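Homework help thread (please don't just give me the answer)

Our assignment gives two proteins as sequence + structure token strings and asks us to describe the second one. The first is just a warm-up. Here they are:
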Amino acid sequence: MTTIASPASLLTIDIIRSVLDSMPMQGRIMLRLILLQYFDVTDEEILYIVADRPDPRCVAGTKPTNTTMTKESIKVVTDRRDQYRRQVRLKRERTWLQCEGLQNLAQLREAFADRVRTLLTERFSLSADQLETLRASARTVLPRPAIRQLDERWNTDDITAEDYQRQRLSIEFQTQLRMAEKYRKRLNLAERERQSAILAPLQDHEIAHVWGIPAGSLAARKVKYLSQYLHALQAALAASGTAASTAPLDLWKETFSVLASQPIVRSPSTYDGLEKTESALIEKLTAMAWGSLAEESEVKFWTSLVFGASSNAMHSEITRNLFGLQRLITVLNDMDRSPEAVDEELLKRTAPIPKLEVAAIETKDGPPVKELSEMQTQILNSMRGEDASGRPSDKW
């Protein structure tokens, strides 16, 4: 994953915290609200916000100097702070989980492709030119018709088991290459979204919704305290003797980059019904991690993971559930990535089904024999002129 903080920056989290703590109460609250995805607004600061909010009933004349704080007003400000804090932090966590999962998946698909290439070279003696031809046509090949045709040839004894597995491994090699490229493209898009998420401050209308002050007053305070913060930050860097050794920085952007380097705290999430049952979800996540999930199903499944719902509807950030993405990271971290385990999985996946098992499957899939009910048996016996015991009846 790409590095967020600039390597030339000597700005640290401790310097940012010390500058914020040294600011006056009003300025500290303003900066903490702007940087809400990295800092918390304390209970003491919430009380200041409640006392600082103008009374909407007094639109003209002299404003009251002694405002009364009620539990309801404190709860309103606290709930709004919690709402926006959860919203911005969920977006940051979701984009991080996406990037982490996609990076792991891309590395896995490339590792699987390397193991398939090794198997084709060592076991089936494929040349480098043949492997390069397979790699060049990986984007355009259609795996399902090729596998279907291969299975038909195997069922009609037109191909040996060794040739079947060689061709099946060739298809698997192309599939792994194609999926690795797909995950890399998704990773690039997710990285862009993550960069925009970590550099996004709380918007003015959101701050005004929490604080409850007019837009004009909010804008004036924001300009005043942002300028004060940047000057104090520059002075702190100069006092530490490091400013001269670095190039001029965009200290505001660098603040976000440095704060984004902190570890992300996992938010609690519960199962939301994705794939109907949790066991089915884990099974599908495991198949996705091992690369055995069908490509047409994988696209829709990844969309449902990102949006945190079992439908394709677009949801707001606050309603998204990160359960699926969190479980995906867990599955990826717990899987055995050793070459022996990967080779075993690939050989098992590409081996032809023995003919005895094919016959057993066909017999099993045949129409089941339906047993006759007691009434149906009695009707048949009457039609044949027999009684319930099967002997000829005297009635006929």
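The one we have to describe:
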Amino acid sequence: MPIYLWWPGHVPATTDGRLAALVDVTPTLLAAIGLAPSYQVDGRGLLGADRRDRVLLEYWQDRANGSIPTWASTYAPGRWQYTEYYDGGGRRVDREYYDLTADPWQLSNVLGDGEPANDPDLAPLADALAAQRRCTGTACS
């Protein structure tokens, strides 16, 4: 996600290619003004050298977008994206996996191509996604 932060005399102007997410805005702004939160915040401050190699993306079904199912996804830029879809009871009903090196536009779901031989081992991906969904604070990727 592109982010622009400008505060002359406090934050130096620079370009940074790190992966960032909206959840990183709060810890970044708190660090910029020198405040420590009184509670545990998710995300990572972007003023230091901390880096992430993936980001958790989630969407929870709402009344305004009733036809879009709830989903959660782990996105590892340039490598892969794994997504799970859930029914109203929170049970997984579908999955997608994209090889972003071979398919950067995510046009071919590897799990739906009819070739089980090229499917990744889903157990570690599902476990990692579940762990990310439960995770809080700066220890999360």
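TA reply:
I won't write it for you, but here's a hint about the kind of observation we're looking for: Helices lie at 25-33, 122-134.
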